[in-house]
């Protein structure tokens, strides 16, 4: 298990009522923000996801019961906890949700990582239904309380001590009751059979807590409670050795409560009809059972045209020799429907349900089906595990929507949806060729492209985007004896704040650091005696060669010149050789042309850097000649990546962009095509050279501007 990007409990950054932030393990420029409260989730129209269904009937004219449906979302106040590090989300592996209400109502449910996207509960209320409905409609009060316990992966504090334990002795001391981390920490050192190292060198309380957390990860499992309690697994006789000097992964409890003030404000803004509905059931069993269908999904889902729920029940002879089934379209914005299922009188429901979707995931609208899930009640709740594809919930903070919009773009470059202040949340379907998010700043700066991975949730805020926070670079000067003064400044800042450093004859290297307060302008500009360079994008191990360095070793492999990095042995760099067409996972080019009535529409994703497979082959071949550990492109600033067609005696640009700002410098291009341009592109696709080409203009770290083109026919012929 890799520990990188887990919160390092030894390095807290922020601790307070707005949340807790830890430095990410072995990632000096990143930090992990833990959520600090629960909020009522919102429907796409802004209404709170809270509803009480009053059910009257069930065999007695006076019997009244009901169901509670509530959606909750964890919240992190990025604006309050953001510092000089990029914030990343915690890794949640287990969760327990408890919801309580009037008349002693209480429900506890155990869930998994999907609670990071939304914690949803649908439960019988019994006599509490009428009381809860009254409070919601008359007082606008929340009338419920909720607590969510999440187990988050972290890295324990380190101490120069090692322990050995007999697991059976530890089990006897703890007994069979559930226990807390604090209880285990009280006894843990007393039952150790062997202790080595320097116990006096660390704080005793911190050392015992770290040891308790390490033992929990090996010997215990979380109890199904919102209180942070654990219980021992069945243990075999044996010795456990734990070296606290070595980094180790542990679970830490993050317990958050519903913000009742925010919940009551959301309830007050909603009408009673959105919070309470009434259902009348027949008093005699007829076999016609009303079903309430609901998709427990975050809406909207970009590309989704129609969502259908299917329910089926197998035959039950002799009362019902034929199977029963029913289907319904789930109406938006909340994804619900009501249908009637015909069974035998008095027959209990025992069947299956699934979701079907008509959705565009990049190749036009198609129908896909999800797996069947068991159904045993008249309330059918179908969650993300019933959807045909993995769903990743995207949530934009208000801090981001005030600065940018976000496009959801398919792997082939088609724009599915736009997220902004009016639509800050969506659930993105993730097929085999996943889509990407293109974050476009409203003001100055570069767009940022983020691949969408199958995970429960992605929070987008300026502080969570690549490029935000602290960065560093190494200035490398190994030229003549005469010194050189280098001036530098962060991108987006005026010349008046520029700083300088003098290099040579000694020292010849210097490390400079800066903080990017905008992820859209994360780079650095520098100069000696000439003009300012183009922005140099930050990256791990960034080295900026100052003119005057000795000539590096140059090796040519497959027509690509690779230069040794004087500052990092084993690292070899190349200048991007020209734009190419991005390839999907199956190796096909990300290019589509739709033709209709002599006109056409083009979508193409271009990239400046070499494909990953080509870089791997370069490294393999280079190792036959020299000692090499890494091959990568030099950092460049891209001014344009575009598609051009030949018209008369000149090349005309029909689509262009500035690229993603970071390697591999991809750009999603699209254009409407009149007949002559459509013909030229079709000819290029079929292999005719001189009809269409990709063009790129970029600036090297030396401030040299490069213009380069690649014939489209050559690129598609090699794809």
Describe this structure in words.
The structure is a single chain. It contains eleven helices and 52 strands. It has 719 residues and is mainly beta. A hairpin with a 2-residue loop joins strand 1 and strand 2. Helix 4 (181-187) crosses helix 5.
Assign a percent range to the helix content.
Answer: 10-25%
What characterizes the major β-sheet? 5 strands, mixed
Which structural class do you get from the secondary structure elements?
mainly beta
> What distance lies between the first and last C-alpha atoms, to the nearest angstrom?
36 Å
Counted by DSSP, the helix tally is: 11
The dominant shape is globular
Rg from alpha-carbon coordinates: 30 Å
Counting DSSP E segments of at least 2 residues, the number of strands comes to 52
Low-confidence stretches: 58-63
Please, what is the average pLDDT?
A: 87
Q: Approximately what portion of the residues adopt beta-strand conformation? A: 35-45%
